[in-house]
Input
Amino acid sequence: MVSERKIDVDLDGRNADRSYVITIEPGILDKVGERLVGLGLGTHRCAVITNPTVGGLYLERLITSLEGAGISAIVINIPDGETYKNLEEISRVYDQLLTERFERTSPIIALGGGVIGDMAGYVAATYLRGVPFIQIPTTLLAQVDSSVGGKTGVNHELGKNLIGAFYQPRAVYIDPTLLSTLDDRELRAGLAEVVKHGVIWDDSFFSFIEDNAEQMLLLNPDAIASAIDCSCTIKAGIVGEDEREAGLRTILNFGHTFGHAIEALTQYKEYKHGEALAIGMVMAADLSASMGLSDEALARRIEKLLIAFGLPTKLPERMSADELVVALHMDKKVKDGCIRFILLEQAGKVVLKTVGEQEIRACIKAATSSAD
Ligand SMILES: NC(=O)c1ccc[n+]([C@@H]2O[C@H](COP(=O)([O-])OP(=O)(O)OC[C@H]3O[C@@H](n4cnc5c(N)ncnc54)[C@H](O)[C@@H]3O)[C@@H](O)[C@H]2O)c1
Output
């Protein structure tokens, strides 16, 4: 029987105003109303932002819980999909909130995956200069990654997540049982971020994932709760040290340098973020080994685990080194024209390093030729 787990997210040296708790509890969806009252957010009204897919599955239970605590809800639906993560949709949400005279003290609740979480968070950060924000993440990626850390925002036609704000929620309620309806491919993509957390920070968690990979895929309650718990603990610890990505938080980009380039070169259509990340992590691990920073065996361990999760680990053959190098130069870690990577020293330990173009090209060649 899996019980409640709680993780403190301590910001500003435990500044009580902005610190909050992540609760992981099967069935917590049905208790959100009473939890809001406990937080002092039991205002007469709240707004729930969701999409028709997630709303169709879980909205009724959330509304029942809210109404049981005397809270009525305005429901705002955003169409399902990354293509709707834009300012036009945000503007429509503002219209509805203003028309309803939604007040500054009333909370906005995100019920959905990372897209809904990022958008609802951005609305909460900006509507009336900020209203209380609650996250109920419903994909594995959102439960282990995007709901933690306070990054909110939308895409611009010139790039992903270019418009946004750092805005922390007042609480995150994670109900792992909601994952039972999630598409298998989405689950596997979320597991890539779980692997990343073990690789960058915690050797014993990495081993735990290796030992429990099959159970995680089967959504065994203990295995999946531990995966979420450890991932959130690791991310919360890193974000607590460096909320605005001035230093330590960069390590969360392990695998993302190649991963983002692969996503961009395939127009964000071919790979889920976690799938491109899986390829990127293997390439970064191989690059680390080729530079003598870490063991080749570690790269193979990571690759084996990602394959066990059914994730891709090889570069698509048609992708040329030239176009990848150009795409890599768009990375936010590029400094003075030099490409920097988060590289491995050992399991649980990474380092930020500038890498020369020759080494990058050799790594791309190896990743491509081994795919033949
Ligand atoms: N803020 C951050 O720190 C951060 C970090 C990583 C990613 N992100 C963002 O997260 C987004 C991706 O999030 P995602 O992977 O959760 O995708 P998503 O929100 O698009 O959800 C994926 C699909 O699953 C559906 N879904 C969600 N929960 C479900 C459930 N329980 N049952 C059935 N279907 C369900 C959704 O409707 C959607 O169709 C991207 O926009 C990315 O930029 C943000």
